[in-house]
Amino acid sequence: MTEKLILEKKDNTALITIDNPGANTWDLESLAGLEEIIQNLNNDDDIFALVITGQGEKFFSAGADLKVFHEGGKDAAQKMSSAFSKAFEALSNFRGVSIAAINGYAMGGGLECALACDIRVAEEKAILALPEPKVGLLPCGGGTQVLPRLVGEGWAKRIILTGEQIKPEQALKIGLIEEKVEDGQSLEISMKIASNVANQSPGSISKCKDLIKKARLSNEPYQEELEPFVNLFDTKDQKEGVEAFLDKRKPNWKNA
What we know:
Elements lengths: L4 E6 L2 E6 L9 H15 L6 E6 L4 E3 L4 H27 L4 E6 L2 E3 L1 H7 L3 E5 L4 E2 L13 H20 L5 H7 L4 E3 L4 H12 L4 H13 L6 H4 L1 H6 L4 H12 L9
Parallel strand pairs: 2-3, 3-5, 4-6, 5-7, 6-8, 7-9
Antiparallel strand pairs: 1-2
Helix pairs in contact: 1-2, 2-3
């Protein structure tokens, strides 16, 4: 798919490593590659979770390479913004649990990649920012839409409109990340979190993700869950989950 993304599978977890020296920037090739990888993982019944991280010790991802916009102008902007949107929407809609192991700078499209994940784990050295307005641009990979849902409108404005760089301690306080860890530990902790997902029914996880997204907009939150809950009883995993509980054993999920 692309050599700029390394895909590994460990038990029920897929590990994606952004590998585009020296700042793990995104381009058309890697964005299309991410979209394709996610599509393939959605069709892999053995994968319940994915972790995405950056190669090296300094960068998770510095976002887009500004040279692309400088040299390509508006045509490049149209292609890149579309690619960012498709790739991160695919990541957001991954049927399992997605975790960003933020091992360094997460800037612009790098932070938007993390925002598209369900859970974010950041190392102490990490720096998070959406600095696009500093160069006359704006976030085009969901930043203006997803960030306010996580941290509230006030902090979203502060981060985007002032260009403030957020350190993990503050990010944890405002809900931008779910866990702060020591340097060098983000991948290990993220993989441990991902391994816990194997204890959950894949079908239930997928339905819960859909419902959590609907909760942002729904005027009838208590009604949203009824039909999906009942529909789970058409699945083998629902039966297996109840039987395993009653038998006092670990369930053997089939993702069916």
